[in-house]
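User: My collaborator and I are trying to settle a disagreement about how two of our proteins should look. Neither of us wants to argue from intuition anymore, so we agreed to look at predicted structures for both before our next call. Could you fold the first one, then the second, and keep them clearly separated?

Assistant: That sounds like a sensible way to settle it. I'll keep them separate. The first protein:
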Amino acid sequence: MDHKETLDSLLHEERVFRPLPQMLIEAGVNPQDLRAARELAEVDLCSYWEEAAEELDWFKKWEQVCDISDAPNYRWFSGARCNIVYNALDRHIETVNKNRLALIWEGEPGDSRQYTYYELYRAVNRFANGLKALGVGKGDRVVLYMPQLPETVIAMLACARIGAVHSMVFSGFSARLLRERVREVDPRVVVTVDGFYRNGQVIRLKEEVDRALLDDPAQNLESVVVVHRANVDVNMDSARDCWYEDLVRHERPHAPAEIMAADDPLFIMHTSGTTGKPKGLVHSHGGYMVGVHRTFKWVFDLKPTDIFWCSADPGWITGHSYLVYGPLLAGTTTVMYEGHSLYPQADRLWNIVSKYGVTIFYTSPTQIRTLMRFGHRYPEQHDLSSLRILGAVGEPFNTEAWLWMYENIGKGQCPVLDTWWQTETGMIMISPLPVSVLKPGSVTRPLPGIDADVVDAEGNPVPDGKGGLLVIKKPWPAMFSDVIGDREEVMAHYWKRIPGMFYAGDVARKDEDGYFWIQGRADDVLNISGHRIGTAEVECALTKHPQVAEAAVVGVVDKIKGQVAKAYVTLNHGFVESDDLHRELKEQVRRELGPIVIVRSIEFRDELPKTSSGKIKRTELG
């Protein structure tokens, strides 16, 4: 097949992928179960989520599953008493899971540590007691400025265990951004690390903390706890700073789990801020616990032998829900890696999959597109046969990257599950299951208990195939429960823009099978001659070209058409810019999306600017 024929086949990719027979036979949730769950949720939403809640342990059962009396301030499992850490640790050490591996951690230099559930339980209890010794109690806030370390997981769980509220600040953020978060959250304690390894460098995180706290920005801040990692010299304020190791050394390995109301706060998580000032959203113990547990088990078809790896950083909601809490609630083994995916070369992730026998790998489209640039030789150097399920989250997953992952990582034997959810939702909302029929580029259908739709600005459903606004019409348990700051303004943004519906801020469309296709953010939309075109659609068309690794599209002013598109493109390894490639890419967009979509110019770059969560920063382009 010549180059043009290859290009033509990619442009008209309409393949459908059906589950393998063995997957259907072994599925914990088969198509019939899924259909029955959808029917139950449509008829009686509360009964569906009550059934999910009964899989977990509660100190006191709920009086009401979902209180809608003050909508949209929904309250889940009113009157119930629980603790998410009791379900993530205590209930497992009373079973055969006690000596099962809970956490496998690998550092960038190649060092590693492993914790059984019992070992993790004892480590969490020691730090919980250490936090109590520092004066931290129920309702207090703790800021965690941490990379991917076991102590990060331990700190999250220790806070939740004693009823404190943790607020993670991504370790890639600057001192200025940390300072802003500390001022807003006003913690009693900050937990950080001396330094950590990233792409062969030592990142000195304690120095950033010192810069952030120069003028005492937090009224209640009393202590900074520092984990030894890179063994670099740091300044320690004797009145404020203490070493993690010194704090926990003499603490008892037993600490009771605080009895929490279901709607007591668990953590504060800020939105990514790509569309304005980040909003501090609060998730609570009960509803979050139920939503994350159910979706983790169902979407990833969990088996007793699974080794689960979510490559997300714990500084983001994906890391909270499906690196830490989801796997531990389910009693499985979770993998964590400290460093860069390209260090020391572009096979690091595949080396980890092979070394630990990872069975489920959950990552981002950006990560896959980054690795695609190096071709298939690196995956071929490692035994990836342990994998049985692949997944992605965070942004629209273009068809070419989906197919590359399916063919080169899963070897055509693993379903690729493209999932949609947000910081605001707390849990996966729209996703296939391993038994679903897959369409590359589609997140398929909403999960049971999720009433999603695509509507116009007035809330009216749009016809199949037409773009519109993605909304959620009914409450779900892992939804954020409170806001740090101006609650009324934030709630109005999500719930009053289209009255009675949760406004997700994404543009999407549904096809004739009810499958959802995420097209990008609502504010990432081109208006060309009155036609609204998602930038993600144009980017997807560009990345279908075999030479393109990534693409970003912005709108530029046109006197006649209002807007036209300008594209920024990075190429796969070994390819270079040419006039022929310019023409091919413009023609590709035209053929893929129609003549209405005009790409005025294409600029080739070595890399595209991204937020710390891996999203392209279009505001820095153009």
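The second protein, kept apart from the first:
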Amino acid sequence: MRFGETPIDEAAGAILAHSWRANGVNFSKGRILSDEDIARLKQAGVSTVVAARLDADDMHEDEAAATVARALAGEGIDVTAAFTGRCNHFAREAGLAVLDQERIDALNELDESVTVATLPPFARVEPRQMVATVKIIPYGAPKAAVARAVDVAKAANRPMISVAPFHAMRAGLVQTKLPGTRDKVLDKAVGTTTKRLTSLGSTLNGERRVAHDAKAIADALAELKAEGCDLFLIAGASAIVDRNDVVPAGIEAAGGKVIHFGMPVDPGNLLLTAELDGKPVLGLPGCAKSPKYNGFDMVLERLAARLPVGRAEIVRMGSGGLLAEIPSRPQPRDETDSEEAGPQQAPRVAVLVLAAGRSTRMGGPNKLLAEAEGAPLVVHAVKAALASQAVEVVVVLGHMADDVRAAVEKAVQPRSRVRFVTNPDFAQGLSTSVRAGIGALPTTVDAAVVQLGDMPGVGAPLLNRLMAAFSPVEGRAICVPTVGGKRGNPVLWARRFFPEMAKLSGDSGAKHLIGEHADLVCEVEMTGEAAITDIDTPEALAAWRARSTA
């Protein structure tokens, strides 16, 4: 890759290294300069720009990031579209991040242009939480470096980054009593244990309170086993101090087998692992009565994720096992605690498909019901939204609402995440449909893509690229697709603009807000002409049909 000061007459096709905002020009860094861009810069008096030019043996940052990210991803991982050389991995379900740290280190040693950052191994993740990010440092990476990274990812017969989802367990709890043991303490332990299990999607199926005696423990385990429990927890009134203590003796009396006593985790040193008829048994340390994260949680999470927790796994928990000095450790069960900043989540983006217009320029028929490539225009739009990484799809109806809805429902799965909202004021212009759609979105949505129903070329990859560009923290709160420097549709809007969009009027939509918030606009260059091609007239429809069959 060549980088540096470039004469403006030689800059076409180069990547702008630094943003340029002056003399009527507003170009962001990373923009691939078109001939039209060069003309505008020359008109603004620019003679040179700092730019990057890729050589034949280089790969563009986005292509490189996507290539590496796909190679790394295993089960339970969703990979976002790449943007600014970054491609993220998000958890599909709640579970544990399973990472091959040795190979991740090896990949990061290959070339300074290719990097991957992850959560710690076995970190607990929630749905849509970021697990890893691949970042290409410069504007391009050597193809050879990308190829070596892919080879490292495929070197072993297992993925480098995956999520083991939690599975429901039916736990039975045995609590022993000594003279002076208060029921209030035991009741509190039940509550704490229930919260732990519930947070993992599991249940406390039964509880027994017995004397601190091996036979009593064995009898309680037999009862809980008969009730269908598949996990057994034993909280002794006195801590386990030896493999031959009361609790392990009770497990063996019930026909169980002790696997390992003790763990290199503090708090949690005195945890005991065992097995009863192929099902896990845990002798709990005293810290299990506390809602704070401890060694019991580390083992319980792995059991819920159906990961092995034998002696080999226990003894490896020492690195990172000093928990008492980590006040920021996530504690999802204690509802009274809160973190200043939670884990990084995938933005929750909705797509609003505007399908309420009267098609006045079409000369009669409703263009949204006109067929292109075997399906009505509106169906193309809805299917693209459903195939994207949007969390919700809202179709705004108006003109011929029943017919448009019927066309969509015929083409999509009955249980798809499509919702319909009717705009009674559709005759008053596009803005009324935007208002209706925005008003139908839940408060959990972070942003919305306003997608026109008459742009059949807009597919899921284009929508995903807009979502990948969205980052309010980095100043990218309005994401606009461009083709050769020309702005198009659909446009992604951060939630912060919803109140202003709810006050729109007329037929121009929210275009003026882009100008009013230029500092928050991110232009996202797209290939092809889908983002600037809509179907407004019979001629435009005929041209589209001709291109699609060519």
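Some points you might bring to the call about the second protein. The longest helix spans residues 183-199. Residues 326-340 have pLDDT under 50 and may be disordered.
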